[in-house]
Design brief:
Length: 350
């Protein structure tokens, strides 16, 4: 039954919203751990106050790198925060950025050194082989188990860079994952670090996949559930305005003083930013132009008959506007018979 009115009449409309956050630092080498910790803290203060569970996708290979490079103080700070998130009822899931596996820490310059060709799954496998990839995934799952007593069920690929042929599906299935959530229907991004092409997805809220046919084809049978990310695109003009401001073309900063806060994000290398700045809107990058977007998109998706929306955000990108955007959005969902839910709970309802 897809009709919203039919669903509403029979009382089975669920109006769910999942807030996911990729818990990670930028991959340009700058160690912006402080931003990650303080912004996550503020974010969860808001969520806890409103009794909203959040889903954090932990860039687990970053933790492995901290351990391996002897950054024990930093490791402990993150571990404490993640344990605290768990205690508060938030969900920790698996986020995978393979470039961390071959990363090294330059203590003198206080900088991470990456091989950016290892950023995507296929890039890493081409450079180092499948065995090294699987070994690293197992090691990181072990860190989840020993440090947090968690067996994550959902997997999200870094940069949403799910490239075909998707060897990784077979691998994550063998490792016990039952949810894949890296797909952003309609999204296309080609840059020198990776290609993300999600233009051929089924027109559905979720679907089953198997390792033979990949994330973009629905299967009757399949060990993995694909839960895609909801779309909210910034308008052309807003995007270019933001891109220019974000890239520090100061002379274009015609907006009011108040908007300064929008760009008070963690620092990011200009070259990398130019490459990966997306057209998509997310709550963490909300500004005056996009703040209301999430209400209207959520409403539209619900009214089109879908039970849930799922937003992708990043604690590291939260800004002055995000806090009020988040509070407003939470209030609006609750006032409109909506409910917040984690991915694991969502899976049981689908
Ligand atoms: Zn990521």
């Amino acid at each position: 039954m897809h009709c919203y009115i039919c669903k509403a009449l029979t009382g089975i409309v669920k109006r769910l919203s999942v807030l996911t956050f990729d818990y990670e630092i930028f991959f340009d080498g700058q160690n912006d751990l402080e931003h990650l910790i303080t912004k996550t803290q503020k974010l969860t203060d808001i969520a806890n106050h409103q009794s909203v569970p959040l889903s954090f996708f932990i860039d687990i290979a970053y933790l492995e790198a901290l351990k391996r490079c002897g950054l024990h103080h930093e490791f402990k700070r993150i571990k404490d925060q993640l344990n605290w998130l768990s205690t508060c009822g938030h969900e920790l899931q698996f986020h995978w950025h393979p470039h961390w596996i071959t990363s090294t820490w330059n203590e003198e310059k206080k900088l991470w050194i990456f091989n950016k060709a290892d950023y995507s799954w296929n890039g890493f496998v081409e450079n180092h082989g499948m065995d090294k990839m699987i070994g690293a995934l197992k090691l990181c799952l072990e860190i989840f188990k020993t440090e947090f007593d968690i067996v994550p069920c959902a997997f999200r690929m870094g940069g949403l860079a799910v490239e075909e042929p998707q060897h990784y599906l077979k691998t994550i299935e063998n490792l016990g994952f039952t949810i894949e959530t890296s797909v952003f229907p309609g999204f296309f991004k080609e840059c020198k670090f990776f290609t993300t092409d999600h233009r051929k997805t089924p027109n559905k809220t979720h679907w089953k996949i198997d390792s033979q046919t990949g994330c973009f084809k629905e299967q009757q049978q399949g060990g993995i559930l694909e839960i895609p990310i909801s779309q909210a695109y910034t308008k052309e003009l807003d995007f270019w305005k933001k891109a220019n401001l974000s890239l520090n073309y100061r002379w274009l900063k015609w907006s009011s003083q108040e908007e300064e806060g929008t760009y008070a994000q963690s620092p990011m290398n200009l070259e990398v930013k130019k490459e990966i700045l997306p057209r998509t809107a997310s709550l963490d990058k909300a500004d005056r132009a996009t703040k209301m977007l999430f209400r209207s998109v959520t409403e539209q998706i619900w009214e089109n008959g879908a039970d849930f929306v799922l937003w992708l955000n990043h604690p590291k990108s939260l800004n002055l506007y995000s806090w009020s955007a988040l509070r407003d959005y939470i209030d609006w969902v609750k006032n409109n018979s909506g409910q917040f839910i984690t991915i694991e709970t969502l899976k049981n309802k689908l």
